[in-house]
Amino acid sequence: TLALAACGSSDDDTGSTTASAGGGAGERKVTLVTGVKGDEFYITMACGAQSEADRLGVQLDVQSPDEFDPSKQTPIVNAVAASKPDALLIAPTDQAALYAPIKQIADAGTKVVLVDTTLENADVAVSQIATDNYEGGKAAARALADLIGGSGKVLLLGFRAGVSTDDLRSRGFRDGAEELGLELVGTEYSDNKPEKAASIVKAALARDPELKGVFATNSFASEGAATGLREADAQDKVKIVGFDAGPIQVEQLEQGLVQALIAQQSAEIGRLGVQQAVAALDGRTVQERIGTGSTTITQENIDSPESRAAMDKR
Ligand code: T6T
């Protein structure tokens, strides 16, 4: 499968050659629906899911919308429902809008595991696995406070309101900023587009030349924020803390365009998702909620084994 082709060498030595190596008609089918195509966080998450699927002998199919948008993800969920997989792993792109389509597939007997993002009402899922995003947002506030010397004006740059990860990271950041005495000048959304993130940051800086820091809540927001500051020639004045550690972000950290990254355990979320789905299918005990941690990566610890392991793969 595509997902496996992108997964690098870590599990190549198992000799596994995708689902076709598995059993015949009786083999269980698991579908993973990610938030968006081409996003290294989800690519890495899918690799973790694939290695666990190989280990447990289940078939994994990965599907991704072209944009991070509930109106693009919903038809995919509906098409997956028609194929009646045994289990669905999904990262809902909206806390409310994806409820009905996911409920429909759950009611038809597919076991649902929410990975990365969640729903306002998660009663349709047997398990939810996600980074502790609220804590991640607080960690971002601490990192930014350190970088700007403890006080000053900061901008919160989200990617999409109504997505659980963004909402929780933002809440954690706001609470952390308040506790630490940072002055939040505003919250804006980049629609998961680096270009939009870049122009938001340039406009914010033009409005407020005193701006000292930006927290960008995901990889695309962070990538664009860094580009925007470089274009405004303001990379020395304004510090950026970004969520995620994709290849472009790591490069920007190395170049000093971004000062800290809050990295997730992307592959682990995928691995645990398949593990919990198979436990549910086997009638074994399932963990309703699993929180995974985050790692703050800076130039200082960028080469540590822990930081390297937390980076997403292309
Ligand atoms: O930050 C991740 C993910 O956790 C979030 O839900 C959506 O954006 C990413 O995929 C990064 O691009």
TrEMBL record:
Does Signal appear among the keywords?
Answer: yes
Q: Where is the Periplasmic binding protein domain?
A: 32-284
* Predominant place of localization: other
- Keywords noted in UniProt: Signal
What InterPro entries has UniProt attached to this entry? Answer: Peripla_BP_I (IPR028082), SBP_2_dom (IPR025997)
PROSITE patterns annotated for this entry? PROKAR_LIPOPROTEIN
Q: Which domain of life is it from?
A: Bacteria
Locations listed in the record = Cell envelope
Q: Into which family does the record put it? A: Belongs to the bacterial solute-binding protein 2 family.
The protein, known as: ABC transporter substrate-binding protein
